[in-house]
Amino acid sequence: MDMKRKRRKDRNHIIYELECLDTGETYIGLTVQAGTPEASVRGRFNRHISRARREGKDWLLCEALRKYGRDGFERKVLEVIRGKAEAHVRERELTKLNQPELNTL
Fold first, then answer.
1. What's the order of all strands across the beta sheet hosting 12-20?
2. Is the Cβ–Cβ distance between 77 and 5 less than 8 Å?
3. CA–CA separation, 13 vs 11, rounded Å?
4. HSE on the CB side for 38, CA within 13 Å?
5. Which one of 14, 29, 46, 83 has the minimum C-beta count within 10 Å?
6. Buried b vs exposed e over 84-99: b needs ≥16 C-beta within 10 Å?
7. Rg of the Cα atoms in the chain
């Protein structure tokens, strides 16, 4: 009997901010918590770096990551939210409130 596991909807999600140290421009994002909040954001940041180098997207964050590199950014945990839907709602609220320059909307 092959039973698929039900996807959890109540996991913790991390809303984070990346700030470019040279320009002060910011990016707000969301990731699932795996380990500590800081480790989760570090892992997500590493995936952003990899994607910027590998895929050549013209998204604002990717362009900034290619220009300023890994050391040109500071990572911050903004909030830990339980539940995927709640986390997405809060991410949109923070994005609207803070107007991060590097988010491609």
1. 26-32, 12-20, 73-82
2. no
3. 6
4. 1
5. 46
6. beebeebbeebbeeee
7. 15
Name residue, tokens 């830990």: 80
Strand partners, 76: 17
Written in H, E and C, the secondary structure of 36-64 is CHHHHHHHHHHHHHHHHHHHCCCCHHHHH
**How far is it, in rounded angstroms, from Cα 11 to Cα 56?**
32
- Token pair of 67, please? 């220009």
pLDDT tens figures, 67-84: 999 999 999 999 999 999
The pLDDT, as a whole number, for residue 39 is 97
Only one residue has tokens 């990899």, namely: 50
- CA distance readout (Å), 44 to 5, 37, 77, 97: 25, 11, 12, 22
